[in-house]
Structures are given as C-alpha cells and as structure tokens.
Backbone:
C-alpha cells in the first residue's frame, strides 16, 4: 500500500540544535526517532531526507538582509543571531536551510499528489520574523511554506494551527492583516511566558480582522481545558474553509516541560492531529503538513510527536 | 527583553513566590487559630476557677 505520510528525519535536520546545554539541543530528533521506531511508526510512514533550501527560497518569507546575516554569523561560528536566545554556531545557516528545504520538499510532494501528509519533527520555527531570528528560531519554515503556497501554487487560503506552549508570533504578526491566512493558536498566556503576546483580543487587523484566533491558557491548564478550547479551533477553521493546513505541534505544552507551565498529556497532540486530518479531508483534499515545533523534555516530545505521526498515519481511517 | 530560555527561571521564581505567598497565608491562619484556641482555653480555665473560688 502506498504510504500517505512522509516523515522527514535525517542527519542534516538533526544538526539544527544549539550548543552548550541549550534547551534546543541536537539530541531532540534522536529522542523522537527512538520512540517512533519503538512504536514501529517508521514502518508505516515513508521516510525522506532533507535538502537545503536556496537563499532565494528562504527569501520568499524573509528579508535578504536577515538571510545574509545568518550566513555571515554561521561562517563566523559564534555570536548571537537574535538578542540572546538563539546563538550562532558553525553551520547554523546550513542546518537552518535544511529545515526550510525539508518543508519545501514536503510541500512539493504533497502538491504533486505523491503524499497527503508530511511530518517534520525538527521544524515549526514559529518565532522567526521576516527580518529577525527569535526564540531558538532562525528561519521560519512555516512562513516560507505559506508564502510558497501563494507564489508557486496559487493557494491563498491557508490555515495555520499552533498548539506549541509559546505564541506563534512569527506567524501571527506577518499575517495579522492578511485576508486569507486562517490563524488559530492555543498557547500559555503571554502574561506568564515568552513571547508575551497572543492575547484573546488579538483577532487580526484590517482585511484580516476576525480571521485570527488566539486562545491563551492559564498556567497549569490541562487536557480538559484544552479539549474545551479546541472546539473553538475546529469551528474557526470550518467557518473560514482553508485549502491547506499547516500544523505546529510543539510538545512544550505537555506537563513537565522545563520552560513552561501547561499540564497537557500527549493525548492532546494526538487529538489535535486526528481532528485536523478530518478537517483536511473535508476541506483541503487531505493536505496537511505537521511540524514538531518546541518541546524541551525529551520524553514528552517523543510521545507528543509520535502521537501526531500516528494520527497522520491513520488519517484516512 | 523577555528571553525564551530564561523565562522559565523567572516564571519559576514567580511561582515559588506565589507558593511562598500561599504558605504564608496558611501560616497566618494556623497562628490565628492557635491563638484563639489558647485564648478560649485561658478564658475557660479562668471561668472554672472563678466558679470554684466563689
């Protein structure tokens, strides 16, 4: 049987991680892969390696100055790409270009009809803005995918759904006034956590007013609170009928993450992925891309992301 | 500037402060209850003593 899901795991993607005990280390992909093979999920999804995105492809979303600056800092091999969260290291440009390249490869193969769904654990870098890196995110792969859908495939109505514990400011603000980017984000309340944004009142501006849904959760919120709010996400997507779904499944919202305070279990991630597959089948010809996003407790990210991958594998059931 | 990598530390400190605040509340409550119990005991003993003496 032809696999409907493509999983992006390779050495080049694994190199996207920061040195010196940084929470986003290079061991995250392996932590996921061990659990995926343990659950035999690797047998049900087709595997793919990544490729490096070109500077021109990255610049579909980012300013050229930002792309060049990352290149220079990568050659220099030290310093900070943002204000302190995202350190430069030798090869950071190449590693970041592979994250974007894998996403673009997945997108191309979905649009070619080869697969319906892709999952890329090392991806979903949702804090990078058009002109800056931020919060461990160098290039915004999801932003590049959305702008590529528009410029290369003529698909404008895209849904971006984000359940990472941190608000997806790198997607919200660039598309705040966008009339076709359907945005839904459940995250820990910005009054308690980085980046401090994503208030319920942030519903989009101008032509994008009403198209954005931000749902801040109080510290300590668990599965019951998530499930109740998730109904609003589904209603939001149904109301605005996207043609394609981009899903950021950050595992740092699971209880025990060292950087955050929500109390979900991995079931929230599996539930969100299952329901988004149903919505994708109804409205998007099944087309959905999943990204791992954050997650700094290795057990949590392994279980959370495997829940998403398992749901993607079962997507047509 | 709010940092993602250190936000948890700051938040943890805030959480600890909140926890300390909660503990402080219970400490004060326990002290008040103990004080009232002691006061009531003294009052009872005094009343009994008065009755015995009169």
Residues:
């Amino acid at each position: 049987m032809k696999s409907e899901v493509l999983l992006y795991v390779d050495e080049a993607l694994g190199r996207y991680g920061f040195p010196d005990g940084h929470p986003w280390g290079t061991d995250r992909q392996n932590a996921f892969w061990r659990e995926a093979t343990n659950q035999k999920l690797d047998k049900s999804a087709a595997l793919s390696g990544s490729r490096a995105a070109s500077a021109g492809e990255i610049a579909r979303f980012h300013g050229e100055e930002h792309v060049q600056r990352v290149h220079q800092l990568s050659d220099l091999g030290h310093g900070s790409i943002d204000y302190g969260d995202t350190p430069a290291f030798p090869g950071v440009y190449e590693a970041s270009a592979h994250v974007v390249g894998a996403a673009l490869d997945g997108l191309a193969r979905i649009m070619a009809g080869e697969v319906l769904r892709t999952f890329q654990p090392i991806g979903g870098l949702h804090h990078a803005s058009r002109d800056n890196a931020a919060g461990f995110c160098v290039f915004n792969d999801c932003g590049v995918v959305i702008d590529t859908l528009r410029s290369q495939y003529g698909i404008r109505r895209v849904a971006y759904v984000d359940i990472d514990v941190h608000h997806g400011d790198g997607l919200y603000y660039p598309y705040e006034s966008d009339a076709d980017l359907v945005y839904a984000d459940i995250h820990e309340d910005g009054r308690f956590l980085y980046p401090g944004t994503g208030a319920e009142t942030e519903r989009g501006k101008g032509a994008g007013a009403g198209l954005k849904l931000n749902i801040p959760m109080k510290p300590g919120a668990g599965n019951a609170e998530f499930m109740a709010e998730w109904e609003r996400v589904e209603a939001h997507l149904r109301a605005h009928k996207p043609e394609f779904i981009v899903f950021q499944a950050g595992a740092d919202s699971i209880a025990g993450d060292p950087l955050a305070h929500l109390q979900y279990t991995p079931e929230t991630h599996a539930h969100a992925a299952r329901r988004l597959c149903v919505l994708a089948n109804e409205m998007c010809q099944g087309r959905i891309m999943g990204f791992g996003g954050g997650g700094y407790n290795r057990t949590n990210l392994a279980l959370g992301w495997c829940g998403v991958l398992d749901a993607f594998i079962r997507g047509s059931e | 500037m709010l940092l993602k990598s250190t936000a948890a530390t700051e938040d943890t400190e805030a959480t600890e402060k909140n926890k300390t605040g909660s503990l402080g509340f219970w400490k004060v409550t326990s002290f008040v209850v103990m004080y009232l119990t002691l006061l009531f005991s003294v009052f009872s003993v005094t009343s009994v003593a008065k009755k015995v003496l009169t």
